[in-house]
Design a protein that fits this description.
Elements lengths: L5 E9 L7 H14 L4 E6 L4 H10 L4 E3 L1 H4 L1 H12 L4 E5 L11 H8 L3 E6 L5 H11 L7 E7 L4 H10 L6 E5 L9 E2 L2 E2 L6 H16 L12 E4 L19 E5 L4 E3 L2 H9 L3 E5 L12 E4 L1 E2 L5 H6 L1 H12 L3 E5 L1 H6 L2 E3 L5 E3 L7 E4 L5 E9 L2 E9 L1 E4 L6 E5 L5 E8 L2 E4 L2 E2 L5 H8 L6
Parallel strand pairs: 1-4, 1-5, 2-3, 2-4, 5-6, 6-7, 11-13, 11-14, 14-16, 16-25, 17-19
Antiparallel strand pairs: 1-10, 8-9, 12-15, 17-18, 19-22, 20-21, 20-23, 21-26, 23-24, 24-25
Helix pairs in contact: 1-2, 1-8, 6-7
Pathway: Cofactor biosynthesis; adenosylcobalamin biosynthesis
Family: Belongs to the CobB/CobQ family. CobQ subfamily.
Organism: Marinomonas hwangdonensis
């Protein structure tokens, strides 16, 4: 029987720029409707590890990334379709500004027909807020805009000035006052990891629900219009999956130092036939029995002393490497693989030493952007986001190919069974190449 269209109320939260309050408002909405007994499925656009952790706790449901470039249209369509079958509400949080990036949040919303709500920090403006919202709403004719959310609104008079300046087809959905009690905690790469502040987040989520209820404009407090979602076989064929990792066990580092893990990547490895086991480089003394190892990104720079002092784990991973088994080390995992790492206080600590070189944090300056990892095993799409540097590393086997710039991207290193790079890979973009990285000696 051919799968049929599924309708689900849906809203896409966007903004003219970063730091307008999108994540706070998306989390507040997710918890508001979850408290009403609704199943809320939230998606985050673009490559992001931290926001989804926050949104998953707020919605009490898994949160996945949607990105047309990184994952492909068919993948995004399938995820939305699957969510629509179980959800009472779908929320999508955009990245950066509404039209930033290729593809942008607007591209994603237009492709799947999801109406957008514009989140705007209106502090220091009144009628101009309406002008900004109107400009965004009318910039393209293929984007549906449901209305404006005026964040950090000072008073009812402030809201009235904005409301009166808006045309009737662009309603004011909510006017939200400034409230530090609901602001989400941050650190140098973005929001703090949810697991570190679970109890605090619960308090902020519930405060944010009351914050939403205080608005004089109640457009956000009822379910948005339903959007039709279609099965993937109507928009493109799914990737054929061969279980190259059947019978293989992959040990995944997962703790406060290593947590930048897409759920989609875990599901990708399982779809390839792998069994997954998790371990903590911070706390465990030995590796679980495994055929391959994944050291994902995270915050090793915040835990350099503990990682360095866990000599039993360092020795276990060094032995694993010397045995020639497959290891993938991404960003923070690559820093852990180097000989030393200098933290934010300029303290240098010994690390694994399975890859020559030294890593060091460099404050506010960093590198980010979408790149394709060009490896001998195949091209895998992903992104870079780091505020560190590495030096005296070996000759790379390849470089990332930047999405919109001809200069070489991040270096990619391979030796024995190790593949290491600053790049965070999205496994679903090339399952066959991903599988080869975890097999013994990736260069075979």
């Amino acid at each position: 029987m051919t799968p049929s269209v599924v309708h689900c109320p849906s809203l896409f939260l966007t903004a003219p720029a970063s730091n307008q309050g999108k994540t706070t408002i998306t989390a507040a909405l997710a918890r508001y409707f979850t408290n009403q007994g609704k199943v809320v499925r939230v998606f985050k656009t673009g490559p992001d590890y931290l926001d989804p952790q926050i949104l998953a706790q707020a919605s009490k449901q898994p949160v996945e990334q949607l990105d047309i470039w990184m994952a492909g249209e068919a993948y995004c369509q399938d995820k939305l379709y699957q969510a629509a079958q179980v959800a009472d509400l779908i929320l999508v949080e955009g990245a950066m500004g509404m039209f930033d990036g290729e593809p942008s949040s607007a591209d994603l919303a237009a492709r799947f027909g999801i109406p957008m709500a514009i989140v705007l920090d209106v502090k220091g403006m009144a009628q101009t807020a309406a002008a900004v919202a109107m400009g965004l709403a009318n910039f393209r004719d293929d984007v549906q805009v449901a209305g404006l959310i005026a964040n950090h609104c000072g008073s009812e008079r402030h809201a009235e000035l904005i409301r009166e300046a808006l045309p009737t087809n662009l309603p004011l959905l909510a006017t939200l006052k400034r409230d530090e009690e609901i602001t989400l905690p941050e650190r140098h790469l973005g929001l703090v990891q949810a697991d570190e502040v679970k109890d605090e987040l619960e308090i902020r989520f519930e405060a944010a629900v009351e914050w939403l209820k205080e608005t004089q404009d109640t457009g956000l407090l009822s379910l948005p219009n339903a959007v039709p979602f279609y099965p993937v076989n109507q928009v493109g064929a799914k990737q054929t999956i061969e279980q190259h990792l059947l019978g293989k066990t992959i040990a995944v580092a997962k703790d406060a130092a290593f947590s930048f893990i897409y759920d989609a990547n875990l599901m990708a490895l399982k779809s390839l036939g792998a069994e997954l086991v998790f371990f903590s480089p911070l706390h465990d003394q030995a590796l679980p029995k495994a055929d391959a190892l994944w050291l994902p990104g995270g915050y090793p720079e915040l835990h350099t002393k503990a990682l360095s002092e866990n000599t039993a784990m360092r020795q276990a991973i060094q032995d694993f490497y010397q045995a020639g088994k497959g290891i993938l080390a991404e960003c923070g995992g690559m820093l852990y693989s180097l000989e030393t790492l200098t933290d934010l206080e300029e303290n240098e600590y010994p690390m694994l030493g399975i890859l020559a070189g030294q890593g060091a944090m460099r404050g506010e300056r960093g590198c980010q952007g979408m790149q394709t990892a060009v490896t001998p095993q195949g091209d895998i799409r992903g992104h870079a986001h780091h505020r560190s540097r590495s030096a005296n590393t070996p000759e790379p086997v390849g470089y990332g190919r930047r999405q919109r710039h001809p200069a070489p991207g991040e270096a990619i290193y391979q030796q024995k069974g190790l593949t290491a790079s600053y790049l965070h890979l999205f496994f679903q973009s090339n399952l066959d190449a991903t599988a080869k990285l975890f097999l013994v000696n990736p260069q075979d």
